[in-house]
Amino acid sequence: MTNTQQHVKVPTQGEKITMQEGKLQVPAHPIIPFVEGDGTGPDIWRASVRVLDAAVEAAYGGERRIEWLEVYAGEKSVQVYGEGEWLPQETVDAFDEYLVGIKGPLTTPVGGGIRSINVALRQELDLYACVRPVQYFEGVPSPLKRPGDVNMVIFRENTEDIYAGIEYRAGTPEAAKVRDFLMNEMGVTKIRFPETSAFGVKPVSREGTERLVRAAIQYAVDNGRKNVSLVHKGNIMKFTEGAFRDWGYELAKREFGAVELDGGPWLKLPNGIVIKDVIADNFLQQILLRPTEYDVIATLNLNGDYISDALAAEVGGIGIAPGANINYVTGHAVFEATHGTAPKYAGKDVINPSSVILSGEMMLRYMGWTEAADLILRGLDQTIQQKVVTYDFARNMEGATEVKTSQFADKIIENMRNA
Ligand SMILES: NC(=O)C1=CN([C@@H]2O[C@H](COP(=O)(O)OP(=O)(O)OC[C@H]3O[C@@H](n4cnc5c(N)ncnc54)[C@H](OP(=O)(O)O)[C@@H]3O)[C@@H](O)[C@H]2O)C=CC1
Ligand SMILES: O=C(O)CCC(=O)C(=O)O
Ligand SMILES: [Mg+2]
């Protein structure tokens, strides 16, 4: 740890995960930092950590164990560190130093106040790929007729686009300056109400696009997937979202040997993987009507945010939607659910912990602890098939036994141990 350490208590046992020659080196007792999260975060974390520990214990019988290191962000951080300390430096340092971590959701106010701590952490650690697999667990209630057809992995660009937070509030001198620059120096005439407009800037770079698309295509290659779709709104935002598509296609040709399919623009890799593109609004209707045609998705930050929740709903909702923020070059990874803090359920022990449990499952798999990860999938799968579920699934599932967050975790652990 750095010498700024104030509240983080590093476990006396355990070692760091490191990256050597592009490969993650995971000791038997890795120290893993976690943030509990705001709102329902504590309920979810309490349940999830028990499932993760039980899976590791059941898989490796005490030879491996995670040494958890609590770090603080959000409301708990303000309690521990004091006013204004939403994301202390030692939290960022811990995620940086220990390489792999996990976090619960953190609150972001609407229309003012602090900017997102979740986004800040991704940017600080340069976790450029937000990876969100969308898979169906048999028996989960879904609005689709054939939810089993949905099997996609979203690669959402995680460091730029309008999430860069470059915005100027209407009526401020900064907004006036941007307006004057656009109108007087750039010859812009199409700002409909210039005096009362706010302005936002959308940076999209070739580097940012290429590293994200590279990760998506590599994932498709490594996992035998059939296609990668570049999802964009490039007909309207030609130089940002349109460029994302063009840079993506160029990279596929240059680095993966893709060639044009029937005169382009779609491409085909030597191993048969198709690289295609689709405009975002069309994509959102196609994933409902023809989900089998989509597989790995590479998209920009805002599109990826919307698409994540829309796709999660198809397989039962954001209560079962995991994710990871990854820098594939440095190995840094912070695992987190797709959902937010769901504050109305905070402290009630009713919320579905599956998204964080499955984010933990992704983390174990990323660490190479596949036996423990597999046990979690089996435990969760069986629990759902026994119709022992939290309120969100119970309300649409006939004959369900509705249980609390903690009881749901108990049942997963029981099923895992009997697996
Ligand atoms: N990465 C992060 O930390 C994220 C943080 N946020 C932040 O969270 C706060 C709340 O955001 P909001 O837009 O309400 O979105 P939320 O994802 O927190 O909740 C929206 C709704 O989704 C359902 N839901 C969410 N989580 C679960 C779960 N674990 N199990 C079952 N159902 C769930 C609930 O639906 P129902 O009411 O039908 O039961 C809930 O009311 C905001 O401050 C936002 O900025 C948002 C997204 C990500
Ligand atoms: O940071 C936030 O509050 C919201 C982020 C979000 O919705 C997401 O990353 O999916
Ligand atoms: Mg979101």
TrEMBL record:
Domain Isopropylmalate dehydrogenase-like positions: 31-412
The EC number(s) this enzyme carries: 1.1.1.42
The keyword Magnesium belongs to this UniProt entry's keyword annotation: yes
Name of this protein: Isocitrate dehydrogenase [NADP]
Cofactor or coenzyme needed: Mg(2+); Mn(2+)
Catalytic activity annotation: D-threo-isocitrate + NADP(+) = 2-oxoglutarate + CO2 + NADPH
Family in the record: Belongs to the isocitrate and isopropylmalate dehydrogenases family.
Key words, A-Z: Glyoxylate bypass, Magnesium, Manganese, Metal-binding, NADP, Oxidoreductase, Tricarboxylic acid cycle
Domain of life, source organism: Bacteria
Complex and partners: Homodimer.
